[in-house]
Amino acid sequence: MTWANALKKTARAGLTIERITLEPLVAIRGACGVAVVVGLMLAFGSPALAVSSAFGAFASGLATFQRSWRPRPLLALAVAGVLGLSTFLGYLAAAHLATFVALLAVWTLLSGMAWAVGPVTGFVATQTVAVMLVTVTLPTSVAGAAEHAALILVGGLVQAALILLFPIRPWGRQRDALADALAAEADYARRLRHDPVARFDPQPLMDARSAAELTPRQARGRPRQLGGPRGVAERIRPVLASLADPIVGAPPEGPGRDRARELLGAAADVLDAVARAIRRGRPVRVTPEVMATLEVPESGPRLDGAARRSALRLMALLADVVEASDEPLRATRPTAEKATEKATEKTAQKTAEKERRHLLRPTMAGLVPVGWRALRREARWSSPVGRHAVRVTTVACVGYLLGTALPLGHGYWAPMTSVMVMRPDFAQTYQRGVARFVGTLVGVWAGAGITALTHPGPEVCAALAVVSVGLLYLLMRTGYIVVSACIGAYIVFLLGIAGEGWSQTVQARLALTLLGGVLALAAYALWPSWETPRLRDRLADWLRTNGDYALAVLDAHARPENRKRRVREALLDARAARLEWEDAAARALKEPVRHRGISRAAERAAESALATLGRAAMLMEAHLPGPDAEPDPGAGEFAAALRAALPDAVAAVRERRRPDWAGPRVALAVWVARAGDEDEGVAVRGSELLQEALDELAEALAPGQQGRNRAARR
User: Fold this and answer.
1) What is the per-residue pLDDT across 45-66, written as a single tens digit (0 to 9) for each?
2) Angle at the Cα of 102 (from 98 to 108), degrees rounded to 5?
3) Under 8 Å CB-to-CB from 353, ≥6 apart: which residues?
4) Is 20 helix (H, G, I), strand (E, B) or coil?
5) Model pTM?
6) Are 248 and 195 in contact (CB under 8 A)?
7) Radius of gyration of the chain from Cα atoms?
8) Domain boundary assignment for the chain
């Protein structure tokens, strides 16, 4: 992609406004936190103290809207504490330019590296730099600096107290994550009715797993509805795929396929019903017709062999997911009452065990060593996060010095714009840069226009600032251009409380916003961290994890003792690697860089092959033998050959060589000859599909394949 096309696409994306579901009550609660703090400071303090405390309440409330699974009050307190520390240090160093620039460099470098811990941590760290740049412009002494820092902490305390006193849909994000995962599987089941090899996006399942990670304190208060359905939903997905697959499941055509479609439709209805029940905290409602479909028919079309086993297992898992939702099943059938009583008794017996078997999330104190390890891992020149930290530090310091030297005043606005705009990847940085300037233009002019027409006093400015922050909280997920407009107006009104006129705001801030945006975009253009050259490494990681997943499944067929934990861990690693590849490929597609090492056509072919490889392993996982089943020596031999060939194949992907799968191919041929035409050989047929995917991968990545593709097109 050329620079012109890349800039046009990123600019269009930055100016896009999306339609979302609004949460007015949550936005009103956050705005009330700002209003309480500002009102108290205006009544009993000074305008300067009102501004400092307002920034603390604003940033603490902003953090609670981020996609984090930690308790909202804890997020507000943590953000307020870090903001208070950064503001206090900034006040101490603000009197001396060299000292403040040195502090700004250190703090910005640490905030840039915070992206290694996670996006929420990176966002919060960025907020601390922005607030420090604004608040230290208010004159004060050392004692006053401590007072300002304490008031910022008070702003966070107020936000946390409001969340505790006025809870709005507790555990709502966790409920939505689990419901989204179940709804995604329902959609997958419906698509399988018409496309037996439909693709499935694992992101909702990964979000549900992240939402299920709890600290010990959270585990004691988690609703029972959120305790069990996720694990059952994870086991349903391979069963759905194996039932629909024309190779190891229902026949491609005929009565068996019709019966499979009925079961898939009924499964989708049940999963949607459970998703609605979890999202709203209500009982599960399933129609009698759906329940009748999920019973073994006395007459009519039937399934045989592996397809029958998949159907029976699907019926059992759907019953488990309804039971795990911990709500009674309501239906008009008279037999449902007894089934409900039994389900309730079983659920009560399992509740204590489920509460003890939650996924662990480190506490805030336990997050320190985790964050330290992440920082050490990313502290290298080749790391995108490390390069981002150095890049944003340089831009912030240069922007602050330029803003101070220019006769515009408000020199902090340029580095604040750069810090808020810059992200570790190209697309987000350029999208936010364009959106920041346009949004600030709209917000500052709107705020200045209102101020010029009404000449408001401090109390009216405070009210207008609260309205601006309320709109920000309400519309935050519609797009960064809306966020920038609300922030621009908010700061105009907020600084109006301290007596700064609108005529001092508009031109200077717009010019410095443009300067900060240009510095951010130029820094990324001059010293980028492109994703395109790393695509082969991402592809190799996906191949390695997919291969480990297939090996875990084959080993379970070869030695049927209980190996489900290893299969589960390998599946999670493969899923994470796939999402990393998809994110990297999406970012690379927006970069103005020619391919280095892999063409777009080879990239798509390799992605399709690895997706088929993972699907083949999933189909075999759906039919794992029980612990007392007979071992399958053919599966063990094929697994040994694949294990021997996998490391060299991963290296070949990185080194632009063709992967060699001769060993696994020979082992599979021996296994197929030994198995013959057995109708029950799910592992054999799944392994054949797996070998086909490996051969497709080798063909896609063969040297010179790109030239042959171009010749064929001509």
Assistant:
1) 888 788 878 888 998 999 888 8
2) 140
3) none
4) coil
5) 0.86
6) no
7) 29
8) 3-169+367-526, 172-200+223-357, 532-713
